[in-house]
Structure formats: structure tokens, C-alpha cells
Amino acid sequence: MPSYKIVLTADRSLMSSYGNGLFYGFLTTGPVRGFVPLPILMNFIFKPVPVGSKGEAILAPHGLRRIEAALVESGVVDESEIIVAPPETLRKVIGEDTKIIGIYSHDHLGRGPASTAFSGPTGIIHEEPISAYFFKMLVTSPIIQEARKRGALVVAGGPGAWQFTHEDMNRLGVDLVLYGEGEKTVPKIFSKILRGEEIKIPQIIHTKPSEYPKAEEIPLLRGATIGGLVEVSRGCGRGCNFCKPTLVPLRHRPLTHILKDIETNVKYGQKNICLHSEDILRYGAGVFEVKHEKVVELFEKASKVPGARITSFSHANLSSIAAHSKTVKAIAEILGTDYHNWIGYQTGIETGSSRLIEMHMKYKPYPF
Ligand code: SF4
């Protein structure tokens, strides 16, 4: 049976549409025992993503979709040589031709902030986090480790990649860890592997800031994303000293690209769209400003994409909301939200303590 040169996947806790409630995904940071019983979570909340006839995931994590797009757009592989697949179909898509298995996670080893608060040795319940449990189950599965013995490289990437040491890689059977924005680095590294060039393993590779893509270089999605997530901006710039998004420059994607990504989601059946950025009110603006017209244009045009429904956005700063009520009202009018028909989003960490703000997040409340 023909197999794919590059197989991109993620564990069972991430390859789920969470019953159309994207933020239920946070339950993956809970403990595997002593919490919601796993069979209930898996059968009622973490239902698997739908699958196509080739074994492809119809919905996939946003980060995997960007890497898929980067690999095809850069010509590293042809569309027919790469697949994004959930764990359930790996037996169908991995085979003799498979040279690279890329595994995405935001919390490979359960050492992220939410996991360490709820689970593991430092958490409320001292049991392994669900995210780490399923990543381990996937990466050590016979289908992946047998392919590795045949010469395929197992590559881990995604926001949780910082958690790996070489010892973890040896223990779990991971050859390469790629950390940081991968749109430019992953195609370079994967094409080296496919050309048969020698790559030192195990190896942890960090993307250099010079290799971050510009906003207009972020490749367009080629399939639908879980939760209909569509990135509108990347980075933040407010410099909170516990925060990762602030470590990369703030960039806003062109509106035409955002609209195309929404159209792609609709084309593959994902009609409910969640606009992603660290603070939606700062779309199109600098670190400390809000450009009313840009934000209104974003919501107006996004909500007019045929078939799409803008159901939420991922983050908004409370300070931006408090300082720009005119923009908030305009968004509410466009989305048709009111006191009874509201939407949820994340504000990130907030505190009423001026001491903590001064110590850790001096610029987050700007202009207050
Ligand atoms: S405002 Fe939010 S995203 Fe920006 S640096 Fe602070 S915590 Fe991070």
C-alpha cells in the first residue's frame, strides 16, 4: 500500500474538536486519574476528529496546518507526499515510504503552566497530565517506533517543544525537537532529511529570530483547523516577564490572507471561526495602540465570508477593552452579541495587585 513521505500527527487529546467547544481543550491539562473519568472525556468531550477516505484528518491543530502548508508551498514535498493524520489512521498512512513523522503538541511532557497547576508533582492532583499521557502513548506506539527502526525520523515540534531534554528524547524515542516558529526552518530541515543528508540525532534545534516569517510570509491554510482557529496576529510586545508570545515580534497578517484561511475552513466544513491573536483589539496596530478602523474592518469582512460565522476570538486584554469601548461596541454589533447572547474569550493573567503588576506585567494594563 502506498504511504506518505511525511506524516504529521498529534496525540488523541489534541486531535479532537472538543464537541465544538475549543476551550474544553484545557481539560487536557487535567490529571489522567482522579479527575473526570477518562472514558467519559474521550467519548463525550474529546471525540476524535472526522477522517477522510485517505486517512487524513478533516480538522487538525492550527500549528500542524501551518507546517503542512509551509512544506507544500516551499516545494519540499508534493501534496500527494504529505498527510496530516490522527492517531487512529497512522497504520494506513505510515509505511515503507515514510521518512519523517512530525508530532505536534503544546504540552508534550505535561510541563506547561496549566498542567503543572492541575496535575503532576506540583499540581492539585499528583497524577500524570492527560496531555503528557497521550503524547507518550502516541510517540511510543509500535506503528511509530517500528517506522523509526526502518529509518524514519521522529520529530517533535509545537509550543511544548521547550520541555525536552536529550534524556527525554532517548526515553521516548524522539530524534529531533524543533522549537520556535517553524514556517521557514522546518522546510529546510525536512528537505535535508529527504535528500539523505546526515543529521545529528538526538538534536534540539531552536529557530533563530532571523528565521521568523514576516506576517505576509505565513503560509495559507490548506485544510480546516480545530475550533476554526485562524491566526490574525502573532506576538505581543508588552513584555510580561512570564510570557512566551512576547518573545517574538508583533506581526499582523494581511486581511486578504485571513479571509482566505476562513474560506478554506468553510470549504472543508468548519464554519464556526475563532480569530486568534494575543489581543484582538490590537489587530493592525502597534504594541500600545488600538486602530478602531482596522479592527472593525477585520470583523466586518471576516463575518461576510460566505458560510462563515465568527463565533469567538481567542484573547483580548481587559485594558484594551476598558480603554476602547467604541471598538468593543462595534464588534458586538457586527457579531450580534448582547447581554443574553455573549461569547467567551481569554483575558490571560490579570491581577488587582499593583505590586504584582509592577513586578511581572508592567505594560499589560497600558494605557492605565
Ligand atoms: S499582554 Fe498577554 S500576551 Fe502580551 S506579554 Fe503580557 S501576558 Fe503575554
Question: Could you characterize what this model shows?
Answer:
- The protein is α/β, with parallel strands linked by helices and 368 residues long.
- It folds into 2 domains: 205 residues, no CATH class; 146 residues, Transcription Regulator spoIIAA, CATH 3.30.750.210.
- The protein is 31% helix and 13% strand.
- The chain is built from 13 helices and 13 strands.
- The strands form 4 sheets. The chain has a 6-stranded parallel β-sheet, sandwiched between helices. Strands 9-12-13 form a 3-stranded parallel β-sheet, covered by helices on one side.
- Strand 6, helix 8 and strand 7 form a beta-alpha-beta unit.
- Helix 10 packs parallel to helix 12.
- The model has no long low-confidence stretch (mean pLDDT 95).
- The site of iron/sulfur cluster has 13 residues, from loops.
Please name the defining characteristics of this protein.
368 residues; alpha/beta; 2 domains; 13% strand; globular; binds iron/sulfur cluster
Strand order of the largest sheet: 3-1-4-5-6-7
List bound small molecules. iron/sulfur cluster
Over all CA atoms, what is the radius of gyration? Answer: 20 Å
Number of helices: 13
Instruction: Give me the strand/helix succession.
Output: EHEHEHEHHHEHEHEEEEEHEHEHHH
Uncertain spans = none
The largest sheet is: 6 strands, parallel
Level of helix content?
25-40%
Summarize the model shown.
It contains 13 helices and 13 strands. Helix 10 packs parallel to helix 12.
